[in-house]
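Final report, Chapter 2: Outcomes

The project's central promise was a pipeline that accepts a single protein chain and returns its three-dimensional structure in a standardized token representation, suitable for archiving and comparison. That pipeline is now operational. To close this chapter, we reproduce one record exactly as it appears in the project archive, with the input sequence first and the structure output second.
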Amino acid sequence: IFALGDVNDDGALDLDEFIGVMFPSAETVISRISQKYNNINEVKKAFMSIDIDHDGKINRQEMTGSGNYNSQEVDAIFILGDVNGDGDIDLEEFIGLMSATEKRKKAEFKFFLEKKVAVQST
């Protein structure tokens, strides 16, 4: 718990750090899940294995029944992933959700590089 929660590295868990470990946000849960996928093909393969009826969408029952995700993870996936609000996760939504951290890292790095270039130019 300390390794996960001691964000400020002071050797103790304060209340906020404890709550963060015990009740992670949906974004934290998704970040943790998405780390197991190394590329888009792995994300697609995972989607196809969960989409039991092969209708191109995953519902809560399919996701829960897959045995790959606990109830907290399923809730997080649907909270953040169901972009169009239809109650299902389609392939595009699943890929977007599971690769969001990589996209965010690239965007942050690009932003950093742009700021660095701007600062050096002035």
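Archive annotation: The first strand starts at residue 57 and ends at 58.
This record, like all others produced under the grant, will remain available to the consortium after the project formally closes.
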